[in-house]
Amino acid sequence: MTDAYDPAREGAKMSFAEDMSYGDYLSLDPILGAQNCQSDAHDEMLFIIQHQTSELWMRLALHELSTARDLLAAGQLSAVFKMLTRVSRIFDQLNNAWDVLRTMTPSEYTAFRDDLGASSGFQSHQYRLIEFILGNRNTAMLKVHEHRPELHHMLQQELGTPSLYHVVLRRLASQLGLSFPDDTFRMDQPHAASDLVMDAWAQIYQAPHDNWQFYELAEKLVDLEDYFRRWRFNHVTTVERIIGFKEGTGGTSGVKYLRRMLEVELFPELWNVRGRL
Ligand code: HEM
Ligand SMILES: N[C@@H](CC(=O)c1ccccc1NC=O)C(=O)O
């Protein structure tokens, strides 16, 4: 008689022939069967899993951002704060994940880089959707998705919807009894900094207690952009460390292109207003 622990004796359910198990619920078979390495290189598994997990976190970020936008339009700010905080935490998670990928050296990456063909993160439709929902909109980015009509359609639909920041600005204007001109809300290009919008944020920051929820909302957005910028910075630094200034597999200039993307400002007035306070 062994005294090894027997979970069945304590009532743990041990048979799942008829019931939904852990793996069933989480669809682990398709997920854990989807690491389709193109080479025999040891590090390709790391590369694939790093991207797949990033895409899963991006999926959650999109889920939170689109609900946050709906709730914002309905004026439910407290729930929006929770969701925006969660998205910042997701970016923090993605930022920390670079430490795992950074263990791959140029020699190890070179062993399978050619097998990636022309594929590149540049073609991540979820990353593009996050950018679009936050307001960094560029119609030129749609073309690489033409071969996948359902993804192309999703991106196009997003471009036809006001961005999260647009919805924030609509509420801000109504809170302060202002009206921003129509060209503040261009849906098919990046949001351009506006003095009127900066004046409105200045009002909020100069007297936080008068409109505390908008003050809190502004800081949640700054937080989110701060984490997003760190993601871009970690990406470009990792890329330089691994491929230097080589052209990207996606056909861009690589690090040069990614450095240019560091200049993107999602909520420019929220950064500009700081110099006015
Ligand atoms: C060895 C690691 C990596 C290298 C060498 C690398 C390299 C590059 C390069 C050169 C580009 C520019 C586009 C091109 O011409 O290919 C790019 C874009 C991109 N990469 Fe990576 N990358 C790496 C890891 C990652 C990871 C882990 C993610 C996470 C999902 C990612 C997501 C993206 C995205 C979203 C873009 C588009 C950025 C934009 O358009 O602003 N990359 N990457
Ligand atoms: N653009 C990268 C390749 C790359 O990183 C990549 C390739 C396929 C799927 C995701 C990727 N990640 C980010 O771009 C390169 O030029 O080496």
TrEMBL record:
<dbReference type="GO" id="GO:0019442">
    <property type="term" value="P:L-tryptophan catabolic process to acetyl-CoA"/>
</dbReference>
<dbReference type="InterPro" id="IPR004981">
    <property type="entry name" value="Trp_2_3_dOase"/>
</dbReference>
<keyword id="KW-0223">Dioxygenase</keyword>
<keyword id="KW-0349">Heme</keyword>
<dbReference type="GO" id="GO:0004833">
    <property type="term" value="F:L-tryptophan 2,3-dioxygenase activity"/>
</dbReference>
<comment type="pathway">
    <text>Amino-acid degradation; L-tryptophan degradation via kynurenine pathway; L-kynurenine from L-tryptophan: step 1/2.</text>
</comment>
<keyword id="KW-0408">Iron</keyword>
<feature type="binding site" description="axial binding residue">
    <location>
        <position position="235"/>
    </location>
    <ligand>
        <name>heme</name>
    </ligand>
</feature>
<feature type="binding site">
    <location>
        <position position="249"/>
    </location>
    <ligand>
        <name>substrate</name>
    </ligand>
</feature>
<dbReference type="GO" id="GO:0020037">
    <property type="term" value="F:heme binding"/>
</dbReference>
<dbReference type="GO" id="GO:0046872">
    <property type="term" value="F:metal ion binding"/>
</dbReference>
<dbReference type="GO" id="GO:0019441">
    <property type="term" value="P:L-tryptophan catabolic process to kynurenine"/>
</dbReference>
<dbReference type="Pfam" id="PF03301">
    <property type="entry name" value="Trp_dioxygenase"/>
</dbReference>
<keyword id="KW-0823">Tryptophan catabolism</keyword>
<comment type="function">
    <text>Heme-dependent dioxygenase that catalyzes the oxidative cleavage of the L-tryptophan (L-Trp) pyrrole ring and converts L-tryptophan to N-formyl-L-kynurenine. Catalyzes the oxidative cleavage of the indole moiety.</text>
</comment>
<feature type="binding site">
    <location>
        <position position="113"/>
    </location>
    <ligand>
        <name>substrate</name>
    </ligand>
</feature>
<comment type="subunit">
    <text>Homotetramer.</text>
</comment>
<dbReference type="InterPro" id="IPR037217">
    <property type="entry name" value="Trp/Indoleamine_2_3_dOase-like"/>
</dbReference>
<comment type="similarity">
    <text>Belongs to the tryptophan 2,3-dioxygenase family.</text>
</comment>
<keyword id="KW-0560">Oxidoreductase</keyword>
<keyword id="KW-0479">Metal-binding</keyword>
<feature type="binding site">
    <location>
        <position position="109"/>
    </location>
    <ligand>
        <name>substrate</name>
    </ligand>
</feature>
<feature type="binding site">
    <location>
        <begin position="47"/>
        <end position="51"/>
    </location>
    <ligand>
        <name>substrate</name>
    </ligand>
</feature>
<protein>
    <recommendedName>
        <fullName>Tryptophan 2,3-dioxygenase</fullName>
        <ecNumber>1.13.11.11</ecNumber>
    </recommendedName>
</protein>
